[in-house]
Description:
The complex is a heterotrimer of chains A (about 270), B (about 70) and C (about 375). Chain B has about 70 residues and is α+β, with helices and mostly antiparallel strands.
Amino acid sequence: MAVKDYIRQRFFPHLWCPGCGHGIVLNGLIRSVERLGMSRNEMVMVSGIGCSSRISGYMDFHTLHTIHGRALAFATGVKLSKPELNVIVPMGDGDALSIGGNHFIHAARRNIDMTAIVMNNRIYGMTGGQYSPLSGPGIMATTAPFSNIDQAFDVVEMAKAAGATFVARTTTYHVQQMADIIRAAILHEGFSVVEVMSQCPTYFGRKNKQGGAVEMMKRMKESTTPIGSKAKAEHPELIERGIFVQTDKPEYCSEYDRIIERAMGGV
Amino acid sequence: MAKAKLKEHRINRDWCKGCGICVAFCPKTVLEMDDKDKAVAARVEDCIACRLCELRCPDLAIEVEVEEP
Amino acid sequence: MTRQIKFIQGNEACVEGALYAGLDFFAGYPITPSTEIAEHLSRRLPQRGGKFIQMEDEIASMCAIIGASLTGKKVLTATSGPGFSLKQEALGYAVMAEIPCVIVNVQRGGPSTGVPTHVSQGDVMQARWGTHGDHSIVALTASNHQDVFAMTVEAFNIAETYRTPVILLFDEVVGHMRERLEIPEKGEIPLVERLRTAVRGGVDYHPYLPREDGRLPMSDFGDVHRYNVTGLVHDMWGFPSDNPKIVHGLLRHLVDKIESNASQMAHYKTFYLEDAETVLVSFGSAARSALHVVEHLRPRGEKIGLLELQTLWPFPADVIQEYCNPARTTVVVEMNMGQVCQMVKTTVRHPERVFLANRIDGVFITDADIRNVLRLIEGKGV
C-alpha cells in the first residue's frame, strides 16, 4: 500500500499552520504504519482535543476524536473490549499531561498495549497560545504575559515512573529516528510512550522570539543528543533522544484473559 | 547498498504551505521558494534522492520517486 | 417454568438485569451506595467471558464504556452523586456521538459529598440537565427489585434502539435493601440487539444518517467501515462541521429522536387511580411508602390512588395530565425539594392543586410523613 492510502486525502491541505511540527508527525506516522504493513481495519486512532488531536481526522483508520485529556481512557475501553485492535493515541502536551495527566499515569501503570504519542510543542496552540505544563519557566505566553513561573517536568521520567514499558523521545527534525521509534513503539506489546518535540511557530515561536519553523527545528537539532552520548556528558543541559525503556512486563489485556480463564474454570 | 537515483521529484502546490523546511534542510540546495511562496525543485539535477524533504514536509506535499534498482 | 429466585440487594438485581440484557463490559469506580454493582460484576462478567475494569476515576469509567461500546459491546457504569457529576462531560459526548450505553446513579444525600450512606432523590434535575448544551435524555427508575431488573433491561433496549445513553436513577434504599427477585427465563423479556449496518465494505457508510424508520445502524470498530466519531457537531460521515444547517439539523435530531418517541418510553404503574380524587405521584423507594398510604386509606373510604413513575425523562407529561388533571389534589412524594413536583406543576391544568410531600434529611420518607402532609393540605392538622 502507498503511504497516501493511509490518509483521508479529501481533507487535505490540512488545518495546521505552515511549518507546524504536527504535520511532520503525521508524515512519520503513516510511513511507520505503511512499513509495518498494517491493515487499516485493525487500527484505531483515539485522540483528545487540541491541534495535535486533529491528526485523527486525517487518518484512514477507525478514528475516535474524544474530549480534552481523556483519550487514553476511551482507548482503554476500546482496547480491553477488543484486544486484537491496534490502538494509537496521539495527544498534545496539555491534553496528555495536564488535564490528561491522571489517565496517562494509569494507562502506563496498567501496561495496556497501546501507543501514546505525545506531540509536545510546549503550548496550547488551538486556543491561541497559552502556557502548558511543559512550557517551562521564563516562557512568554498569552496567560503568562510577565513570563511563566511554572516548572515543567520530564515526560520521559513521568512515563518511566508510571511504569510504561516503552519510552522514547525524538523531535520533528529527526524524522528518520521518529519513524523508527514509532514503528518500534507500535510493535511493542505494552504501553508505549513516544514524546515528539514539535514546533508551534505561530504561538510559541513568535511569542518567544524563536523564529519560524526552520529556526525552531534547527534549535531542536542543536539542543538534543542521542542517549548517553559524549556530548551529553560534556553538556548536561542537552536533551537526550532515543529509546529509554524497552522492557517486557505482563500486558493488561492478556492478564485479563487469564482472569477470564480462571473465572470460567470455576477457580 | 547502491545509491538511490531520482526518477521524479513532485511537489503538490495545493498542499504546500510554503513553510520553507524542505528548502532549509536540503543537503544539496535543490529546492527554493518561488514567487508564489511555494517550494520548487529548482536544481533537480543535483538531487541525491535522500528523501529528507519528503519525510520532513509537514504538508505531505513532496513525493520523491526513486528509480527501481 | 422454573425461574431462579434470589433474595438480594437492589444493586444486585440491577446486575442481574444487566447480565440478562447481554452486558459485555463494565468500567466503574467505587462509590457508596453503588459499589456492590461493581463488586458483583467484577466476578460475574469474567465468569461469562465479559470484561470488567476498575478505572482510575469516574470520568475515565464513563469514557472507557463509550470506547467499548464502539467495538460493539453492551456497556454499563455505575456511580452515585459525586461520580455522576464527574461523568457529565463524557455523558454529553455519548449524547452527541450517539453511543448506546447505560449509566446507573444510585442516589444518595447531596449536594457534594452529602450523606453517602443515606437516601435522597436529589439528582432528578441533574439527570436532565447535568451535561451542557441543548439535549434530551432518558432516565428510568424503579421502586422494587423486580422493576429494577425490568427497567435495567429496558434501559439497554432503549439505548440500542435510539443509540443513546440511558440513565438508571435508583436510590440508596432500593440499592441496599434486600428483597425477592425472580429472574425471568431467557426469551421472556425481548431484547433489542445492536443494529448493525447492512452496507458492504467498500461502499460509503454514513454512521450518522438515519434510516427511514429513524434508526441509525452502527458499525463496530475493527469491522470494514472506517469512520470518525467526535464530540464536535458533525456531518453524516462523522466529520466536524460548523455549518449552520448541519448544526441545526443535528441538534434537532438528537432531541427529536428522544422527545418524539417519549410515549414509547413512558413507563409507569397505576394503583387505585380509576376514581381517585387525590393522586399521589411518586417514584423510586418513596413510591413504596406512597403505596402504603394508598393501601391504608382506601379501606377507610378515601378515594386516593398512586401514579408510580418509572420513566422520569423524557418527562411523561401525557401520563401526568391524564391522571392528575381530573383529580382534586395531586401530591408529589419525593425525597428532594420538589424536583418532580416542579415538573408536575408546569404540566397539569391546575398547578394550584399540586402539593409536595417530601423529606430531605436523609431519613427514608414514611407513610406517616405522607399522611401528615395530606392532613395539612386538608386543613386537619397533624
